[in-house]
Specification:
201 residues, GROEL-like_equatorial_sf, ATP-binding, chaperone, two-stranded antiparallel ribbon, single chain, ATP binding, GroEL, rod-shaped, alpha/beta
């Protein structure tokens, strides 16, 4: 499940709260805390095991979810949220007010693995995949990425289209082979003349 918490907050310009005592301040802090914990409890009771957010989720949520055996991450790129939704199903939510089971996605396994100096989150056996490239120099990395992109595009187009026109001089080589084989069937001096006639010379 992915959440966009900014829609749950009410932004107002020049808003202010006037307090006359410490008790008033404490009441406001307690009310804010209760609202936050109420939202976190709704997510927990829904049964989500992985919670992703586009914005920072805050220290309270960072402690709340792991204590209940749930994974949470903030500042997730919108592109990654969309890919996760495409892979696992579910939908992106802007509020926790009316959460139901049908907004949750499903995956067989979720794991966090460290590759080099970075930590990555994986959803094995899903509909999409991520390719991690490692190179010694930046120029080799860019060349590898371009080549890999070309291969993926070629494979995608080959799958989508049944007809393929070979490149790299393949047509010319096939014509040359055909003409060579045909020329061997013509005896003597007629051979060059017949070949020239075939190529409109």
């Amino acid at each position: 499940m992915s959440l966009h918490p900014e829609a749950a907050l009410l932004y107002k310009e020049n808003a202010e709260v006037r307090m006359k005592s410490v008790e008033d301040y404490q009441a406001i802090v307690d009310a804010e805390r209760n609202i936050l914990y109420d939202k976190l409890e709704k997510i927990y009771k829904l049964g989500a095991k992985v919670v992703l957010s586009k914005l920072p989720i805050g220290d309270v949520a960072t402690q709340f979810f792991p204590d209940r055996d749930q994974f949470c991450a903030g500042r997730v790129q919108e592109e990654d949220l969309m890919r996760t939704m495409t892979t696992c199903g579910g939908s992106i939510q802007t509020s926790v007010g009316s959460l139901t089971d049908d907004v949750l996605g499903q995956c067989a396994l979720f794991e966090e693995v460290q590759v080099g100096g970075e930590r990555y989150n994986f959803f094995p056996k899903s509909k999409t995949c991520t390719i991690i490239l490692r190179e010694g120099a930046e120029q080799f990395m860019e060349e590898t990425e371009r080549s890999l992109h070309d291969v993926i595009v070629i494979i995608r187009r080959a799958i989508k289209n049944d007809s393929v026109v070979a490149g790299g001089g393949a047509i010319e080589m096939e014509l040359s082979r055909y003409l060579r084989d045909y020329s061997r069937t013509i005896p003597g001096k007629q051979q060059p003349r017949a070949v020239c006639g075939m190529v409109w010379m």
